[in-house]
Amino acid sequence: MKPVIALTKGRLEKQFTEFLKSNGYDVAPLLDKGRRLQVETDDFFAVFAKGIDVTTYVEYGIADLGIVGADILLEVQPDVFDLLPLPFGKCRFAVAGLPTSEVRGGKQRIATKYPNIATKYFREQGKSIDIVKLEGSVELAPLLGLADDIVDIVETGSTLKENGLIVKEEMFSLSARCIANRNSLKLKKSILAPIIDSFRMEEVAR
Q1: Of 140, 174, 185, 199, which is most buried, counting CB atoms within 10 Å of its CB?
Q2: How are beta strands 176-180 and 45-49 bridged, if at all?
């Protein structure tokens, strides 16, 4: 029996494939998958989904392990076991906005895809804010006056710069995470342990 690993489609999928390759795994099936949403390798079955859905597949035991961004774990807080950080998908949360923006009375209005993370961060600072939940490019909100500032993931900062925004506060750093179904860790320990240990050894090596 092979374990099932749910992978976040897109950038994390590609970075995880490179991570596996550097760790001695045969990644040819992952590279040649075309439009298929599930692939079998010599070591595991892989399924490909959006990040938020990866946590759902793992939580319900469809997948034993999952590769997902820490931002989703912090925002959604799914009932999964957060095993370990991985040495890719590194970025940071930040508060950003126009250099000239300032809150003139009332609550600061924050546009974000991550209302839970933003609310918790400002609450810990003793601040009360109004949240505007957006799903698309949050950088647009301060440009059009919808919000004073934004809370979002920043990698290179190029998108902010191109839209005339700056980082005002660094919040915290994060990376990709390996998560596990709680029951799988107990019932499939013998087949999951070698894979999990190889991830840990690679992390230590780096």
Answers
A1: 199
A2: unpaired
Q: 83 and 133: one domain?
A: no
Would you call 75 helix, strand, or coil by DSSP? helix
Strand partners, 176: 69
CATH number of the domain residue 199 falls in = 3.40.190.10
Do 96 and 82 lie in one domain? The reply is no
**Residue 113: CB atoms within 10 Å:** 18
H/E element, 13: helix 11-22
Ramachandran sector of residue 112 (left: φ over 0; alpha: ψ -120 to 50; beta: rest): beta
- The number of folded domains in the chain is 2
- For 56-76, write each residue's pLDDT tens digit: 999 999 999 999 999 999 999
Give the containing element (helix H, strand E) for 45: strand 45-49
pLDDT band at 105 (very low <50, low <70, confident <90, very high): low
